[in-house]
Design brief:
Oligomer: single chain
Radius of gyration: 20 Å
CATH architecture of the largest domain: 2-Layer Sandwich
Structural class: alpha/beta
Number of helices: 12
CATH superfamily of the largest domain: Dihydrodipicolinate Reductase, domain 2
CATH class of the largest domain: Alpha Beta
CATH topology of the largest domain: Dihydrodipicolinate Reductase, domain 2
Helix content: 25-40%
Largest sheet: 8 strands, mixed
Length: about 350
Amino acid sequence: MVSTNKKIKVALAGATGYAGRELIKFLSKHKGVEIAALTHGPGEPDEPISSTFPELTGVCDIPVLDTSTIFDKDFDCAFLALPHRAAMSVAKPLLEKGVKVIDFSADYRIHEKKIYEKWYEVEHTDPENLRNAVYGLCEHYRDEIKNADLVANPGCYPTSAILPLIPLLKEKIINAENIIIDSKSGASGAGRSKNPAFQFNEVNESFKAYGIFSHRHTPEINQELSIASGEKVEVTFTPHLLPVQRGILSTIYVDCNSDFPLNKGGMGVVNLSNEISNAFKMAYGNEFFVRVKSAGSSVELKYVANTNFCDISFQLSGNKLIIVSAIDNLIKGAAGQALQNFNIMFGFDEKEGLI
């Protein structure tokens, strides 16, 4: 852990994306941070970040330079808001210089090199750091994050699915088979894409599923749920595109284990709803950024938008359980969780810069 008596110098590669914009807003009000460098991708102009995002005028007017210049700067930690493939080529030399790295891409999230290469269709050129990377789901890997040099910031869809499911799988309350995750995301999840499919006229007044059986967040979800369950988990995950700017709402369908009372030491009849509530309370009762609602309550995107919160609700009928979670895809699903990871790594209060 680094002392917080001095300001930590940070760099952000990929500053001109939506997640980059959100992170700059948070970093600008963080008491222990100095933004030392901002970079952009190929073909973008060298100009102040406030030229790209005018709302940052007077807040952050640092010039944004090509990512190749990042290696010439002096800083303690780098946030990499870069596409997969590009991130690993930047992370490796920074780590060799002793810089701590928080990577937004998928390059270090998947533990097994072969699985990464299957889903992302590219060779992983940094397998050593892949083995050493810590998955940055703050509420479950806090101790590992504290001592990490490289944190793989979780994906937005996986965050919305994994947070509600881990406690129930660990307590053996739900069946690890037949988990169905139905997720809907705002259009900002595609980034500042020039793809017409994500432009306003195409998204507005429409709603569609995409990436059926092929979305690249699937192996990440399977990996983390398998760790929690202690057995292989393969979910059915279907993402949808909502005609809104931001937010993810995931509706998750699971079966409760019929032998759950036996797993509780032969207790006989138990109040399953109470046990579910207790599992969530045990996991998140002391977690500021995860808010679990009482049974039967609802969660909505508007109550998590522009925040680092994950809201969770559930409803039980017999042994059928439906869980609903909501996050802001750009914040708890990207920039906010990255800063929460940074705060853990450098010994700050986890809420610093985020509220």
